[in-house]
Design goal:
This protein has about 350 residues and is mainly β. The protein folds into 3 domains: about 80 residues, Immunoglobulins (Immunoglobulin-like); about 80 residues, Sandwich (Immunoglobulin-like), CATH 2.60.40.10; about 150 residues, no CATH class. An 8-stranded antiparallel barrel has the order 17-18-19-20-21-25-26-29. The N terminus is likely disordered.
Length: about 350
């Protein structure tokens, strides 16, 4: 009998222990929230905007708060009103709105806002036009308020519902014309450069060579290109072949090669059949004829306001010796070693400036 009572006691105690353990192990957060999200409208473009969240809470909304400064929320009844500021970045961003039924009972709703979008289809950089009157229409897409203004009197630009339209007048100035389309998207500025020129008319053509110790002596020449694409500088006496590294308006180089036979050259009334181009350099106080294949180069730069293109001669040869002059000399049997006279010389070549 005692043994039976003991067994019953053990069973009762075990039941009591397991019952207590079950109560103590209950997850206090497992209780169902009183907040029910009925609908959301909180996906925004980059522009400032407002959206709503509708909820059901038996006891009503206790409070709302947001996790980012650019997003705010207020409520009235069972509706939360969400407001986002302008997103001035290209990347999208995320915020959470917390809706409380009580201090320890809330649910979160994610708010998403896109980054700035300003896409002009078919335009990867600047707008470049030849000298003819032209009209360009580019499809564009923006997700924020967009405004434009133009700088330059030779073209107009306008935004329609889905297009950027640029209209250019014919360029008869003989110079390169540069303007700008300044745009603002969602408060953020940007610029599109507009250039109008014809390489044959506005880059090639008549130039003034400036030379001398003060760069004030001048000689007229023509930068030209033949049908095979070969470039040269044509002076009154003859033609000097040159190479042009690219067709860019800024940073291209004209290069003159030393000891290059340039053919006939007329100086005063004398024509030299075997004229040669000779580069001289200054080392210390001495002037030397170059005995290696030095090149003398000029680098291009465009004055966008005046449209004038200038090629400025580099100060040094590749060896580091200072350029002193380039000369056309009368040679014997087309050789460098023997020459009879300097028939034309430009001392301290400074720059070529488009007329």
């Amino acid at each position: 009998m005692k043994k039976l009572i003991s067994l019953i006691s053990i069973f009762v105690c075990a039941f009591a222990v397991f019952s207590c353990s079950d109560d103590e192990m209950t997850n206090p957060y497992a209780k169902e929230s009183q907040v029910t999200i009925d609908s959301t409208d909180v996906f925004f473009q980059a522009a400032p905007a407002e959206g709503t969240i509708s909820v059901s809470i038996p006891s009503g909304i206790y409070k709302v708060e947001t996790t980012a400064h650019w997003c705010s929320a207020t409520y009235s009844g069972n509706t939360i009103y969400v407001t986002v500021e302008q997103n001035a970045e290209k990347s999208s961003r995320v915020c959470r709105v917390r809706i409380y039924a009580s201090e320890d009972d809330y649910k979160e709703v994610t708010v998403q806002q896109m980054g700035l979008i300003f896409q002009v289809e078919g335009l990867s950089g600047d707008i470049n036009s030849d000298d003819n009157s032209n009209r360009f229409a580019y499809k564009y897409r923006s997700n924020s308020e967009t405004t434009i203004e133009t700088v330059g009197d030779f073209f107009t630009a306008e935004l329609t519902e889905d297009s950027l339209i640029v209209t250019l007048q014919e360029n008869t100035t003989g110079k390169i014309r540069t303007g700008y389309i300044n745009y603002v998207v969602g408060g953020q500025p940007g610029t599109i450069k507009v250039q109008q020129y014809d390489y044959e008319k506005d880059v090639l053509g008549e130039y003034t060579l400036y030379y001398g110790t003060s760069g004030t002596s001048t000689a007229d020449c023509v930068l030209q290109r033949d049908d095979e694409g070969a470039y040269s500088l044509k002076f009154d006496g003859g033609v000097i072949p040159i190479s042009v590294t690219s067709m860019e308006l800024n940073g291209a180089k004209i290069q003159l090669s030393n000891r290059e036979v340039i053919g006939n050259w007329t100086y005063n009334t004398t024509t030299t059949e075997n004229a040669i181009l000779l580069l001289w350099y200054l080392s210390g106080s001495s002037i030397y004829r170059s005995n290696t294949a030095f090149t003398l180069s000029a680098t291009s730069a465009l004055d966008e306001e005046s449209g004038v293109l200038t090629w400025t001669f580099d100060e040094f040869f590749s060896s580091g010796n200072t350029c002193y002059r380039f000369s056309v000399v009368n040679t014997t049997a087309k050789t460098y070693a023997t020459y009879t006279a300097i028939i034309q010389s430009w001392i301290y070549p400074d720059r070529l400036v488009k007329k």
